[in-house]
Write a structure and sequence with these properties.
Shape of chain C: globular
Number of domains of chain C: 1
Structural class of chain B: alpha/beta
Distance between the termini of chain B: 35 Å
Strand order of the largest sheet of chain B: 6-7-8-3-9-10
InterPro entries (chain A): AAA+_ATPase (IPR003593), ABC_AA/LPS_Transport (IPR051120), ABC_transp_permease (IPR001851), ABC_transporter-like_ATP-bd (IPR003439), ABC_transporter-like_CS (IPR017871), BCA_ABC_TP_C (IPR032823), LivM-like (IPR043428), P-loop_NTPase (IPR027417)
Number of strands of chain B: 10
Number of strands of chain C: 2
Radius of gyration of chain B: 17 Å
Subcellular location (chain A): Cell membrane
Structural class of chain C: mainly alpha
CATH class of chain C: Mainly Alpha
Helix content of chain C: over 70%
CATH superfamily of the largest domain in chain B: P-loop containing nucleotide triphosphate hydrolases
Pfam families (chain A): ABC_tran, BCA_ABC_TP_C, BPD_transp_2
Number of helices of chain C: 11
Largest sheet of chain B: 6 strands, mixed
Strand content of chain C: under 5%
Chains: A alpha/beta, B alpha/beta, C mainly alpha
Order of helices and strands of chain B: EEEHEEHEHHHHEHEHEEHH
Largest sheet of chain C: 2 strands, antiparallel
Strand order of the largest sheet of chain C: 1-2
GO molecular function (chain A): ATP binding; ATP hydrolysis activity; branched-chain amino acid transmembrane transporter activity
Keywords (chain A): ATP-binding, Cell membrane, Membrane, Nucleotide-binding, Transmembrane, Transmembrane helix, Transport
Number of helices of chain B: 10
Shape of chain B: globular
Oligomer: heterotrimer
Radius of gyration of chain C: 19 Å
Chain lengths: 589, 236, 294
């Protein structure tokens, strides 16, 4: 295995480093480099992969250092203290994530800043416990009773860094990494694929806090002494610089980033009076010249993405349709007098809607008549202001999107919401989110069970891509596809959740004529496989040809419902929507 | 007055316009019809500089405007009423109108006062609501405001993007009557409209856009009776 | 206690002035100057030097204060212009976090330069009005604090007038509301972004002059003040200038009240307040809720 050979080489290099540079200064530097790298690698998971932001990682770094340090001082064995420190950091990370769940953008940034500064203040002021700026003296780190000298402590850090690297690398290439990335690309699309976005955000924060705490603890024992001056806001910024300058979301980014943030200051330190100037200047230039970071920029040049799927092998096309696509007990949706208000404006005004079995229902109406709002309500994106939604006898009125998906309702998006950093195949694999069984441990360790599950769902996803006719695009970046193809990928991803009701929001908008034919063919095939469809569409031929029943909205109200022939000749519908003859008469006189 | 030559526009990998040619002469009303996603709005945005061209050129009154940023193109005398009205909801009706004359108000404040009165006469409703926040207006009133706002700079060419969208029939009539009125005043207008029959009824010429290409073009009354147009777009 | 509230209001009004700078750039192009604190520091130091020069040239007190304000405002506006051109615009799209780091990078450079010019030590910034204290019952107010209060009221009034009444302010609001529609009015969104950064930096600079005599000045004074102003902006709601004013005053008062007990509580209170506010009101006190469309 090439991967393991690479790890072995790195391990050897790390092992022999103290002989190559036999000076305690260099070994010390290497220690510093490695624990900084651990923090940056963990922050990269949060910022680069899950698309969140933390300007307070120095806080976790501090918690890791203090908890581990104080436990050891209290007589707890070093290794156990380390474990405790890391676990408490995970808890703190989860807590920060919970606090900031509803906050977005700058508000989220502020929560993390506030957390980091609060920790800093506690570290500085709670002198009786933390020692404050005067510092905290620690016993020598001991492993099973053996004291760790400079070199052996270096080896200890190296082993941990290597393990962290392997685990994080595994995470990147597992379902977890994929889900984090998907969430960072489009939260709402991840949610409609069944991802419980809140929990996943908390998880990302917790993992990232863990590694930051680990780095902090390793830092604390480096000199058997540390003080509160380390844990400043600037430190948090520095970690973030490492992630961004290295290349957020890339696997090698943290390594390169750490070189920049750790070694660069060492080199310019001799120019003490100018080091901020130089550091700031280099940072600014690199942000301008390489907005995607060093590794991201290099990857762009070589146009090769470090994604693991590559070109997947095609499974034999064994059937025309995907196996057990839906759970096959059919749809049973009952909407009663649903109302959706925005600031007093009624976008949807007391709509009743029943969808049963495997029917194809058209939902039409002029722009602004409330179709999109209806779709958003049915998929859980909005919670209706009034009224009731029930699905298979269960009240689902206030279900969020991921629970709707679990119940069997999913959707596509009018303004495409593909995970643009993932390949086409990975997009569809994410749709199977609710059907994966292997947990975190299996994913991060790449156990045989995990590998089996991955290849099973990869084959399933390929089958769905064949179903929509995009098998040969499986390895491409989703953003590189045309509109029509992207819409088909969305349909395939939605089918992967195995829904009983599939909501298609203008699946033909923006597609070329040829692609429209393709999309219609796919819709018919989905219909044949017994999944109920709610189709929102402007192309009248499609609606009239595909739908069993059509519901017409105007000004948020249902104005007509019936089979296509009935709708075609319904005077009110014609006036509101189809031909606008009344309007024409009015205008022309 | 306006000439669009072989214009191509891409969104990412998706091709929205595939080589469109279009001419508008002074004093003409030209309609642009086609389905959702056919590229009508993209074409208007390409003309007024809101999207970048991949290929092709656009000239306005003999001057090349493709490649110029939107705010400079607008200064040359184009008024664009965007789709969905896009009034500045957190400012008053009057402020919206004044912003419409942003490019002129410094040089000719007196003129702008007159134009403001002119628009208030055109839509007395706006005068009644002058101090109200634009976001609190109904859809139809917002459309009046968007139209008046574009007229506040006294443009040579008026570009209208789906003025009937989401409006009740009476408001549609009011807006389209206003277009007819402007036509009789000799304004040059490029009109995108989903209500194809109504659009053709009030224009001189028309282009039918489909999948980012011009499918048909010709005199409006001819297209109004063209079998294919009737079948596809007039819903009969 | 009353004393704490009064000095809290004074301090808070300075936070609010600085925080309005975050608001202006944020609504205009969704970016902020994370180095606002260092801009404030530079304003304070430039102000101190200018004031010294002008007064030693024998100018009358009020004239020299006015001259100082104008010099600082002009210098900071230039700097803001440079910041937008050099560190915001070249990054292209604003969705990334790049602008956070690029503005921090600029602020680091400014901090270093200030250290080279003004040295490493804390420089006392004597208030041009002396430190005479007026007594109103149990409450003592220095002349400088009265000056701060007057300045704050004047600046806020000017700012609100500018944003709500002037054509440029309306154009700025239009860009903030909908940049595409604004450019269809012939408004140049990029020029508005430059204007926003210039204004924001001016506010930081003036804030520096006001805060200087209260905290004294040094090259490292900016970071904490910048963060507290940011906290004020977030508490009030980044999209609402009135909210920011309230947020600033609230923060100032809470800090001063807590500092009656201990200085550790004082620093912590600001950030505890923000956590509490954001848990219950994720958009700040008066921020706008944004409903996303799909």
């Amino acid at each position: 295995m090439k991967k393991w050979l690479l790890y072995l080489l790195i391990a050897l290099a790390l092992y022999f480093f103290p002989w190559l540079f036999p000076s305690s200064y260099y070994v010390h530097m290497a220690q510093g480099f490695l624990y900084t790298y651990i923090v940056v690698a963990g922050l990269n998971l949060l910022v680069g992969l899950s698309g969140q932001l933390s300007l307070g990682h120095a806080g976790f770094y501090a918690i890791g250092a203090y908890v581990t340090g104080l436990c050891t001082v209290a007589g707890v064995p070093f290794l156990l203290s380390l474990l405790l420190g890391v676990l408490i950091c995970a808890g703190a990370g989860g807590l920060v994530a919970m606090l900031s769940l509803r906050a977005k953008g700058p508000y989220l940034a502020m929560v993390t800043i506030a957390f980091g500064l609060l920790v800093e203040i506690v570290a500085n002021r709670w002198v009786e416990v933390t020692g404050g700026p005067a510092g905290l003296y620690l016993p020598e780190a001991k492993l099973f009773g053996l004291g760790l000298g400079t070199v052996s402590y270096y080896w200890f850090i190296a082993v941990i860094a290597l393990v962290v690297t392997v685990l994080i690398d595994n995470l990147f290439t597992s379902r977890y990494g994929r889900t984090f990335r998907a969430m960072g690309n489009s939260e709402v699309a991840a949610a409609t694929a069944g991802v419980h976005v809140r929990n996943w955000k908390v998880l990302a924060f917790a993992i990232s806090a863990c590694t930051a705490g680990l780095g902090g603890a390793l830092f604390a024992f480096q000199n058997a002494y540390f003080n509160s001056d380390t844990f400043t806001f600037d430190k948090s910024i520095l970690f973030l610089v490492g992630v961004i300058v290295g290349g957020a979301g890339t696997r090698l980014g943290p390594l390169v980033g750490t070189i920049v943030i750790f070694l660069l200051p060492q080199w310019v330190q001799s120019l003490y009076n100018y080091h901020l100037l130089i550091f700031g200047g280099i940072l600014l230039l690199s942000l301008i010249a390489l907005p995607e970071g060093i590794v991201g920029g290099i990857q762009r040049i070589f146009k090769q993405r470090n994604q693991y799927s590559g070109t997947p092998s095609l499974p034999a096309p064994d059937s025309d349709g995907p196996s057990q696509m839906g759970s096959r007990d059919g749809a049973d949706l009952n909407v009663q007098a649903a109302v959706m208000e925005f600031d007093g404006f009624r976008a949807v005004d007391a709509i009743d809607l029943q969808i049963k079995g495997s029917e194809v229902r058209g939902l039409i109406g002029p722009n602004g008549s409330g179709k999109s709002t209806t779709v958003n309500m049915l998929s859980g994106v909005y919670v209706p202001t009034k009224g009731k939604l029930s699905w298979k006898g269960v009240d689902v009125t206030s279900f969020p999107p991921h629970r709707m998906a679990a119940a069997g309702i999913t959707r596509t998006f009018q303004n495409l919401q593909l995970f643009h950093e993932l390949t086409v195949l990975e997009n569809v694999m994410l749709g199977f989110h609710l059907h994966y069984r292997k947990g975190f441990a299996a994913n991060i360790l790449h156990t045989p069970g995990f590998l089996r599950e991955e290849s099973h769902f990869r084959a399933e996803a390929m089958r769905l891509l064949q179903f929509v006719g995009l098998a040969e695009k499986a390895g491409e970046q989703a953003a590189a596809l045309s509109y029509g193809q992207q819409r088909l990928v969305e349909i395939a991803r939605a089918l992967a959740t195995k829904p009983d009701l599939l909501i298609l929001d203008e699946p033909a908008a923006g597609a070329s004529l040829y692609e429209v034919d393709n999309i219609v063919r796919v819709i018919r095939k989905v219909k044949d496989s017994g999944i109920a469809i709610l189709l929102v569409e402007h192309h009248m031929e499609i609606v009239m040809n595909v739908c069993d029943t059509i519901t017409v909205l105007d000004f948020g109200k249902k104005i007509a419902e019936g089979d296509p022939a009935f709708i075609k000749n319904h005077p009110q519908v014609i006036e509101a929507y189809l031909g606008g003859e009344e309007v024409t008469k009015l205008v022309v006189g | 007055m306006l000439s669009v030559n072989n214009v191509r526009v891409h969104y990412g990998m998706a091709e929205a316009l595939r080589g469109v040619n279009l001419q508008v002469a002074k004093g003409e009303v030209v309609a642009l019809i086609g389905r959702n996603g056919a590229g009508k709005t993209t074409l208007l945005k390409a003309i007024t500089g809101l999207v970048k061209l991949r290929e092709g050129e656009i000239h306005f009154q003999g001057k090349r405007i493709s490649g110029m940023p939107a705010h400079e193109i607008m200064r040359l005398g184009i008024g664009h009423v965007p789709q969905g009205r896009q009034v500045f909801g957190d400012q008053t009706v009057e402020d919206n109108l004044i912003l419409g004359a942003y490019t002129k108000i410094k040089q000719q404040p007196r003129q702008v006062r007159e134009w403001l009165e002119r628009e208030y006469t055109r839509f007395p409703r706006l005068k009644e609501r002058a101090k109200q926040m634009a976001g609190t207006l109904s859809g139809g009133e917002q459309q009046m405001l968007a139209l008046s706002r574009a007229l506040m700079s006294d443009p040579e060419l008026l570009v209208l993007d789906e003025p009937s969208m989401g409006l009740s029939p009476l408001y549609v009539k009011l807006i389209l009557d206003t277009v007819t009125q402007l036509r009789s005043e000799g304004k040059t207008i490029l009109l995108v409209e989903q209500l194809a029959a109504a659009a053709l009824a009030i224009s001189d010429r028309a282009y039918v856009l489909s999948s980012g290409q011009v499918e048909m073009s010709g005199a409006a009354d001819e297209l109004l009776h063209d079998e294919k147009v009737v079948r596809t777009y007039l819903g009969a | 206690m009353l004393q704490a509230i009064v000095s809290g209001l004074i301090l808070g009004s300075i936070y609010a002035i600085i925080a309005q700078g975050y608001y202006i750039t944020f609504v205009t192009n969704r970016t902020m100057n994370f180095g606002q604190g260092d801009f404030l520091m530079l304003g304070a130091l430039v102000g101190l030097t200018t004031l010294g020069t002008v007064t030693s040239a024998g100018m009358n007190l009020f004239v020299s204060v006015l001259v100082t304000m104008v010099v600082v405002a002009a210098a900071m506006a230039m700097l803001g212009w440079g910041l937008e051109r050099g560190a915001i615009r070249p990054l292209g799209h604003v969705l990334s976090v790049g602008w956070i780091l690029s503005t921090v990078a600029v602020s680091l450079m400014i901090r270093n330069i200030a250290m080279l010019i003004w040295g490493r030590n804390v420089i006392p910034f004597p208030s041009p009005f002396g430190d005479e204290v007026y007594r109103f019952g149990s409450v003592g107010i220095t002349k400088h604090e009265i000056f701060v209060a007057i300045c704050a009221i004047v600046i806020m009034a000017c700012l609100f007038f500018f944003l709500n009444r002037s054509l440029l302010g309306k154009a700025l609001a239009a860009v903030a509301f909908n940049p595409d529609a604004a450019s269809l009015m012939g408004i140049n969104p990029r020029r508005m972004a430059v204007l926003a950064f210039a204004l924001s930096s001016m506010l930081a600079g003036v804030g520096g002059i006001l805060v200087g005599p209260i905290t004294n000045t040094a090259f490292f004074m900016g970071a904490t003040l910048g963060l507290k102003a940011f906290a004020a902006a977030i508490i009030g709601g980044l999209t609402n200038p009135l909210g920011i004013l309230i947020g600033g005053l609230l923060l100032g008062v809470i800090e001063q009240v807590f500092s009656l007990y201990s200085s550790a509580y004082k620093d912590a209170s600001a950030f505890l307040l923000i956590l509490i506010v954001l848990i219950f009101m994720p958009q700040g006190l008066l921020g706008k809720k944004v409903k996303e469309k799909f």
